[in-house]
C-alpha cells in the first residue's frame, strides 16, 4: 500500500467525538461514519443527538456535559459498551464564551469558558489515553482548538486564552504519548459558516457598534482566500489526520481557515 492508497481511516476504527450533536462535531462524526468507522458521540443537548440519530442511525450517543467529571465517566461506560475500545478521540467540546471588554467579563463567564473549552479536554483525554494505548489501529487524538489559538482576539479573551492553552496541551501530549504510538494533533478552524458563527458575528458587531453584515464582510476580508470555511472542511482534515497517510504527523497545530491573516 502506498501513502496515496491510505488517505482514509481504516474501516472499523472506533471513534469518540465530544459535542458531536451539531456543528463541527456532527460533521466529523458523519464523516467518520461514512468512512466505515464505528462512532459514538456525546452532547449536552439531547435534541441535537435525536436529530443526528435520525440522519445517521449507526452513530451511538450519550447525553453529557463535557465539563462534568461524572458525566464523562458515564460516557466512557457507554463507549466500552458500544465500541468495546477506542482508537480515536476527537476532543471537540467548546463554547464561544462572552464577547466583551475584559472589564465587563465576570468571573462566572470566565470560569464556564475555561471549564467547557479546556477542562473538558483534560477530562476526556485522561479517560481516553489508557484505551488509546491499547489500540492496534494507529491511535490518535484530535484537539479542536481555533485560529484564536494562534492569534489574539479582542473582546474574546476567555475564548482565545483557552484555545491557546489547548495547543500547549496538544504539544505536551504528543511528546508524552508518542513513544506508545499515540499521535496527537490540533485542528485550528477559522470562521466556520453556521449558526454559532452568526451569533459570534452579531455579538462582535454589537460590541463594535457596526452592523452584522459589515462585521461579516470584515471577517471574510481577513482571509487570503476571501471566504469562510465549512464544518465539512474541518471534517476532511480530521479524516486525514486519523488515516495511515498521516502516520508521521503528530504534535502539529494545523489551521483550516482559508488563511485567516488576523482577527
TrEMBL record:
Highest taxon above the source species: Bacteria
Keywords: Oxidoreductase
Pfam families, sorted: adh_short_C2
PROSITE patterns listed in its UniProt record: ADH_SHORT
NCBIfam families per record: PRK12826.1-2 (NF009466)
Sequence similarity: Belongs to the short-chain dehydrogenases/reductases (SDR) family.
Protein name: SDR family oxidoreductase
Organism the protein comes from: Ramlibacter terrae
Amino acid at each position: 500500500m502506498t501513502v496515496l492508497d491510505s488517505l482514509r481511516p481504516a474501516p472499523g476504527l472506533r471513534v469518540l467525538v465530544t459535542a458531536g450533536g451539531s456543528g463541527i462535531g456532527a460533521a466529523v462524526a458523519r464523516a467518520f461514519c461514512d468512512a466505515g468507522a464505528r462512532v459514538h458521540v456525546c452532547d449536552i443537548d439531547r435534541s441535537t443527538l435525536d436529530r443526528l440519530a435520525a440522519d445517521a442511525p449507526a452513530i451511538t450517543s450519550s447525553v453529557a456535559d463535557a465539563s462534568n467529571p461524572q458525566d464523562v465517566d458515564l460516557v466512557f461506560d457507554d463507549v466500552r459498551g458500544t465500541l468495546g475500545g477506542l482508537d480515536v478521540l476527537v476532543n471537540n467540546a467548546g463554547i464561544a464564551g462572552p464577547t466583551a471588554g475584559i472589564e465587563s467579563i465576570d468571573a462566572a463567564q470566565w470560569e464556564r469558558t475555561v471549564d467547557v473549552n479546556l477542562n473538558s479536554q483534560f477530562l476526556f483525554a485522561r479517560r481516553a489515553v489508557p484505551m488509546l494505548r491499547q489500540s492496534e489501529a494507529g491511535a490518535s487524538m484530535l484537539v479542536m482548538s481555533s485560529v484564536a489559538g494562534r492569534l489574539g482576539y479582542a473582546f474574546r479573551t476567555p475564548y482565545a486564552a483557552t484555545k491557546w492553552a489547548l495547543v500547549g496541551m496538544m504539544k505536551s501530549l504528543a511528546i508524552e504519548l508518542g513513544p506508545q504510538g499515540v499521535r496527537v494533533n490540533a485542528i485550528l478552524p477559522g470562521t466556520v459558516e453556521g449558526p454559532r458563527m452568526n451569533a459570534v458575528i452579531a455579538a462582535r458587531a454589537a460590541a463594535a457598534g457596526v452592523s452584522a453584515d459589515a462585521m461579516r464582510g470584515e471577517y471574510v476580508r481577513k482571509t487570503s482566500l476571501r471566504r469562510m470555511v465549512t464544518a465539512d472542511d474541518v471534517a476532511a482534515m480530521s479524516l486525514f489526520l486519523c488515516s495511515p497517510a498521516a502516520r508521521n504527523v503528530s504534535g502539529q497545530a494545523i489551521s483550516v481557515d482559508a488563511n485567516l491573516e488576523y482577527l
